[in-house]
Amino acid sequence: MIVTFTANPSLDRTVALPGPLERGEVQRAVSVRQESGGKGVNVSRALVASGLESLAVLPGADSDPVLAGLRESAVPFVSLPIDEPLRTNVALTEPGGVTTKINEPGPALEADQQEALIKLLLESSRGASWVVLAGSLPPGFPVDFYATVAQRIREAGNGTTPLIAVDSSGAPLAAALTGDGSGTGGTSTGSGKPDLLKPNAEELAELAAAAGFAPATGDELEADPAAAAAAAAAVVRSGVGAVLATLGSKGAVLVTADGAWLATHPPVAAVSTVGAGDSALAGYLLAHGRGAAPADCLRQAVAHGAAAASLPGSTVPAVHQTTPDAVTITALRKD
């Protein structure tokens, strides 16, 4: 089973526009879709759609629309009851897939609620193969929260510790790279380094700089997969197990201690890029759970991401909607 943890879930509303976004003007939507979201929730949705067992862990009142949406889509979850409503995120999509996102901050949780959320995750992840820590953090959370959670999972593992993946951004992602977490009462030991990081190109540039790699922008890494692989290799050398870096329409690179690969997919008619990266992570985990080699895990990740981009809103694809045979894998140098 794969457990996902979303500290800042959302109700995702996607508004499709008939043409380019026109600032300051009135535009009529072509369609509006609404799904339960947040990065971890999206990963669980994609895994369940493909027949894999997954459990989403998140905060939220029992009556919250986000939880109601999970029930309607038959995605198993456990939640920590809170009084405040979960946030709503809005994505505006233009023809061709250009997407503008407006994300609310989410409800703040007190220190005792943060601790209760961690304990709920620890209880729920016993026997899991992977735990995915994903998304932004709500207001008031320490930036090292994910590193602390990873430490706590490993301390409670008793020899059966699940693998840990982190998909976040900014300071929480940087803290996950160091593996030092103590903001919720844990002791800083450096044991919170993840087995897998899933940045996009911009996030990879920030991680690589923190790992001592020559400065590069996200645009530069997205345009040059070889440079992206070298940047990811610097992150792996810092002690992370593997880096799966999505590069938009350029595909994705996977770097481990043993190799580096680029995966590309033929162009698709992009409808919405919302959740494409989350679907890519789900595809990787799906293949990993089936015992696939690293390059083939990357293959399924890119197939899932491409399929998601061709679907409306934050719709996630099932594995039968993906085309892994269309993906080209190229071995790369790591330095």
UniProtKB/TrEMBL annotation:
Signal peptide from the UniProt entry: none
Carbohydrate kinase PfkB domain span: 22-317
Short name of one Pfam family: PfkB
Keyword Cell cycle recorded: no
Record keywords, A-Z: ATP-binding, Kinase, Nucleotide-binding, Transferase
InterPro entries xref list: Carboh/pur_kinase_PfkB_CS, PfkB_dom, Ribokinase-like, Tagatose/fructose_Pkinase
GO cellular component, one term: cytosol
GO function terms (MF aspect): ATP binding; phosphofructokinase activity
Family: Belongs to the carbohydrate kinase PfkB family.
Protein name: 1-phosphofructokinase
Organism: Pseudarthrobacter phenanthrenivorans
